[in-house]
Request: fold
Amino acid sequence: MPDSDNVVIVIGAQKSGTTSLYSMLSLHPAIAMSREKETDFFCAAELGRDPRSRYFKQFDRKATWYGEASPLY
Reply:
């Protein structure tokens, strides 16, 4: 499981460029961005069992950094 210290979360209002930043970060070879841009993981009322495992299943590859973007955070 990835080191939780190496997570980048892009936070921004709607129409503030989060999609552009998400796309640019996903091009970096050391950063694995989430499959879904807006996982809204931290907005969930009930995270359920083993939330870290469920969260990191969003990422396709082993990387140094992991990231996601959401205008809801």
About this structure: The mean pLDDT is 83. The beta strands are 7-11, 31-33, 65-70. The first helix runs from residue 18 to 26. The helical segments are 18-26, 51-56.
